[in-house]
């Protein structure tokens, strides 16, 4: 009680009429003595909790009246914190009288304050408060006050008002529309007439912020004539030597270039010319010149707002490119570089060099190869021909930096590019040789796999030769690292012939004394093993002892990265050679890893991250044999996955700097008026852990069950982890794996007595969370991944989903369609811009392909829902029809049309009679689309015709004639069997067969059925092939007269089809169908007269003898029967003509009434599916996904590579994704 009384006494004293105790409290809050400061903070917080009104008034009075500058500054900071809308916000708790007094005191302080730094803090405080209450009309006196100050004769007040205008523009911009004329004249006056640089800079900031907040282009245009005065502010600052002011101006102009580039368009040449003049002025500070370059680069990158605008200034692009290449010359031959110690990897590089390198990368990505390559081609030869090593080095670095953005154009000139680089492998200067290797590494990534396929015979020997440069270990190490980049885009057949030489050289490097060389060799070995897979087995016994020795012996702190890389290499080698070869060593390795995991590793030890990935690879290699180690692996893995983001937020205008001194992994970004510091190493560890959890769930299936209850609550919230994309992606990929693991555990009785209700509980947790995350996801690519995972979750959950969850999914699909369509419309508007060009069109096309991916996933989700719930889903389909029907339009892309058709195909196939009500609406579209110019659309449409023929009954009957005509067009097309068209052809043949089967009475069967037979066998769509050949089998079994023809004249063709199908093994028929075919052939042998049998069996025997070896792929029973059949035929003493034709007999009808297909030549089977499957990020990380980050081969920042469209068949196994 006494302590409480004492505290109350302190509060009363601090907040009493005597200002002394309160000023003392404020000074203690600034104390460097921790205990004194902590006590002051505790007392301050008590004052805020118990008497917020008194505290706010005390701070406001102190701000106005204290004679001590430090106290006033601290009062401004503290008051701002209390008035910021976060956990400290006390404004709503204050009495109206207090609020009025605080506002009045703040404005009075603005008028009276003489200190520049405190004036800025005051303006921050006023703006912070005003941003929260102005929109609701909570400070009517403020705007008149600001206008009064900005039009006063006092520069200090003008600056304060302009600072507040700048900060409040986004909140009050629209309310200032009636005052545009006044503001225009005020800004112009302050920019052009004020003699005070601070006022001009404040006016520049206010004008730029205000221009950005105006939504109407017409309103923005009214301020166009300010631009010369805005640029004059920059020019005067430079001419008067005030470079810090000039840098402030440049930063503001960069912001304008990024957000409103079109505002600069009318005077673009003058503005860009001025910036390049600054960049070329060697007498200016580097920081000033770099900002001028940043302005031009920012304009080039402003694609969404001003597409193609900068490409209209080729003369300036050439100048900028020359400036950037010249900056690369600012490099010294530092002896530390030659020492090849890791910490000296940037030795000799200057800030000029680093900025030039980064900007070349950004410029090439933003402008593209058609613009950049011609410019580079003018400069590079002169640099390479110059005597100075720095110019050779600069040319090679340039090639590496522009490769990503110019890849399409550089691939067309690959030999020329490669000659430039490879000729420098023999340069006398080691830094040039290093740069040549660096370029090869980057080109291997950006121009692969073309470079690997065409020039492996030149590149790999050059890299191998560089590994012999023992006088320059850094060159050796980089050559080894470049092998990683080369092999990542390399197939085993290319790499295998070089393995003997590469592996032997890398083993020599492993024994080198330089750690950097050893690390490079480990990385290269890991990559080579990964790329060559089982071909690496012959080197295993030679390599593994070295790797284990490093793992065991590299225990010093200086060797931590070496040990970490040995883990990576061992686990990748193990995966390459397989469990049987690796098993014994794996146990020893895992014992070492367990020992390391039990030790106290330092927080910055790379072992932690590498070990997480190594464990996951070992799991992939060992499969279920890894389960005993999971109890060791999971606790630290979960701990890493649960790491909280290390984020520091300060005001962008604050004097408080985020401490980056002791950690290079902190990235700082500015968002609005906030500066955010993020420790990226924490995020990367978290992302790695989340990926590994997904990997374990995928590999162990039901074996992962014991950890689901810990992993699901960890990963589900991370679906909305917006600090790091990779974390979200991993969480998204893991969702179906967790559900699958739970379902399999329940089905196999390994769920500790839990039943299906557990799977439903998990599904009820995961699916709504996925839907909610999808609703908020800002990245289109991740949206597509979320839809893919959602589709898998629906497949796994099936009818465990209740109606409310289906409603949730359907409503979100509507929202996704709407959002995607909106983005596409916005891009279409960008295409109308006056500067829009072909290069920009290519970029837009790539962005729209991502949208098509989203639509593709939507189609798959709806297909799964339709298959799962059948006719009960139709009420939801009715709601969705207004979103789907527009996708049939000719103004839509082929992919959208295909997806819409596939959705209807699913409805017709799964809902059968219940779907007949949609036929009148959709069948006309379907018939028209069957002759679409796009083969994928045709394929989906003719498949749908087949479905409607099968299930449409009387509703379809009136359209049989038109359907025959449409199918005939597809089948008879001259290029029907081209690889692009053959899938549509096969589906058209299948649809024709269904019309023959289900609408025989509506066609001229004597003509149509033989015409259908003449198209068989079909070989490309393997799913439809099995259906069609089973149908043929059934028709023969029931002795279909139209199929057999008069006097069995079509029997030779039928037997020939059977033989060809049987020779294809299991590809073209199920085992059951194949068995039936062989039985039919035996029956034919037993029942047909010898003369008929002879004419028939010539065809069959020809193909069967040629393909007999293929029959081994069938069961022994099939093979035995076939051999007996051949033997029995031989006893009939039939003369065998190996070149007997397999066409229909003379006189047999080979056309439909309207002219149908004749016999089609045989085709090499492909495996393209009917509908383009979804682009799915692999469910469990593959080797690459589990791997430690690739060694960077250049100093450029990490770059995001756009996603590629996937093929229309499974890239793993070639199997078709079920429609």
Automatic annotation (TrEMBL):
<dbReference type="Pfam" id="PF13513">
    <property type="entry name" value="HEAT_EZ"/>
</dbReference>
<keyword id="KW-0812">Transmembrane</keyword>
<keyword id="KW-0007">Acetylation</keyword>
<dbReference type="InterPro" id="IPR000357">
    <property type="entry name" value="HEAT"/>
</dbReference>
<dbReference type="InterPro" id="IPR040122">
    <property type="entry name" value="Importin_beta"/>
</dbReference>
<keyword id="KW-1133">Transmembrane helix</keyword>
<dbReference type="Pfam" id="PF18829">
    <property type="entry name" value="Importin_rep_6"/>
</dbReference>
<keyword id="KW-0539">Nucleus</keyword>
<dbReference type="Pfam" id="PF25574">
    <property type="entry name" value="TPR_IMB1"/>
</dbReference>
<dbReference type="Pfam" id="PF02985">
    <property type="entry name" value="HEAT"/>
</dbReference>
<feature type="transmembrane region" description="Helical">
    <location>
        <begin position="1092"/>
        <end position="1112"/>
    </location>
</feature>
<dbReference type="InterPro" id="IPR021133">
    <property type="entry name" value="HEAT_type_2"/>
</dbReference>
<dbReference type="GO" id="GO:0031267">
    <property type="term" value="F:small GTPase binding"/>
</dbReference>
<dbReference type="InterPro" id="IPR057672">
    <property type="entry name" value="TPR_IPO4/5"/>
</dbReference>
<feature type="domain" description="Importin N-terminal">
    <location>
        <begin position="40"/>
        <end position="112"/>
    </location>
</feature>
<dbReference type="GO" id="GO:0005737">
    <property type="term" value="C:cytoplasm"/>
</dbReference>
<dbReference type="InterPro" id="IPR041653">
    <property type="entry name" value="Importin_rep_4"/>
</dbReference>
<feature type="region of interest" description="Disordered">
    <location>
        <begin position="1145"/>
        <end position="1181"/>
    </location>
</feature>
<dbReference type="GO" id="GO:0006606">
    <property type="term" value="P:protein import into nucleus"/>
</dbReference>
<protein>
    <recommendedName>
        <fullName>Importin N-terminal domain-containing protein</fullName>
    </recommendedName>
</protein>
<keyword id="KW-0677">Repeat</keyword>
<dbReference type="Pfam" id="PF18808">
    <property type="entry name" value="Importin_rep_4"/>
</dbReference>
<feature type="compositionally biased region" description="Low complexity">
    <location>
        <begin position="1156"/>
        <end position="1181"/>
    </location>
</feature>
<dbReference type="Pfam" id="PF25780">
    <property type="entry name" value="TPR_IPO5"/>
</dbReference>
<feature type="repeat" description="HEAT">
    <location>
        <begin position="417"/>
        <end position="455"/>
    </location>
</feature>
<keyword id="KW-0653">Protein transport</keyword>
<dbReference type="InterPro" id="IPR001494">
    <property type="entry name" value="Importin-beta_N"/>
</dbReference>
<dbReference type="GO" id="GO:0005634">
    <property type="term" value="C:nucleus"/>
</dbReference>
<keyword id="KW-0963">Cytoplasm</keyword>
<keyword id="KW-0472">Membrane</keyword>
<dbReference type="InterPro" id="IPR016024">
    <property type="entry name" value="ARM-type_fold"/>
</dbReference>
<dbReference type="InterPro" id="IPR041389">
    <property type="entry name" value="Importin_rep_6"/>
</dbReference>
<dbReference type="InterPro" id="IPR058584">
    <property type="entry name" value="IMB1_TNPO1-like_TPR"/>
</dbReference>
<dbReference type="InterPro" id="IPR011989">
    <property type="entry name" value="ARM-like"/>
</dbReference>
<keyword id="KW-0813">Transport</keyword>
<dbReference type="InterPro" id="IPR034085">
    <property type="entry name" value="TOG"/>
</dbReference>
